[in-house]
């Protein structure tokens, strides 16, 4: 890939391009060594970490499209990596659980994930890596907060009201 992968300074664009480049690099290894995609492994990890989790919670946790999550779950079910059980408290809902095979495959995927994570972080010093992880934690907490959601809603209303004209800097 060309050394210049960013064609914009917008942070959301840059994060997305970086994530997609990292996924693309590791996807072949996951496919060959695990027999599944990175996204399948992500969903499997969530199900294994949170036994009994439901579909809607997986959609929220992954921020993937509902139809994609549905296809990933169906694939994991067909492979025997997860199982679906009726929720004991609500017959309309089902819970997902990793099978022993799923737990084993998840453990194998962990080693691949660690190796590729080390590769992508290798240009950073230990101090830079800590700062990067700290910054990600701060941003994740902020974006997940009620205050952020309220401000985003206010900004949206303001942009709609002003015809998407930029607001004056404060």
TrEMBL record:
Coiled coil: none annotated. The keyword Nucleus does not apply. PROSITE patterns: HTH_MARR_2. Keywords: DNA-binding. It comes from the Bacteria. InterPro entries: HTH_MarR-typ, MarR/SlyA-like, WH-like_DNA-bd_sf, WH_DNA-bd_sf. This is DNA-binding MarR family transcriptional regulator. Residues 8-141 form the HTH marR-type domain. It comes from Amaricoccus macauensis.
């Amino acid at each position: 890939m060309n050394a210049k992968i960013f064609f914009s300074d917008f942070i959301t664009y840059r994060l997305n391009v970086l994530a997609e480049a990292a996924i693309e690099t590791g996807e072949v290894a996951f496919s060959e060594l695990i027999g599944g995609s990175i996204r399948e492994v992500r969903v499997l990890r969530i199900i294994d970490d949170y036994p009994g989790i439901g579909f809607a919670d997986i959609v929220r946790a992954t921020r993937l499209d509902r139809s994609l999550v549905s296809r990933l779950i169906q694939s994991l079910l067909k492979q025997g990596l997860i199982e679906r059980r009726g929720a004991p408290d609500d017959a309309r809902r089902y819970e997902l659980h990793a099978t022993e095979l799923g737990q084993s495959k998840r453990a194998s995927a962990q080693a691949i994930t660690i190796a590729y994570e080390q590769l992508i972080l290798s240009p950073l010093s230990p101090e830079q890596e800590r700062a990067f992880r700290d910054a990600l934690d701060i941003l994740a907490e902020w974006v997940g907060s009620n205050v952020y959601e309220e401000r985003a809603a206010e900004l949206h209303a303001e942009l709609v009201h002003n015809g998407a004209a930029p607001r004056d800097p404060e």
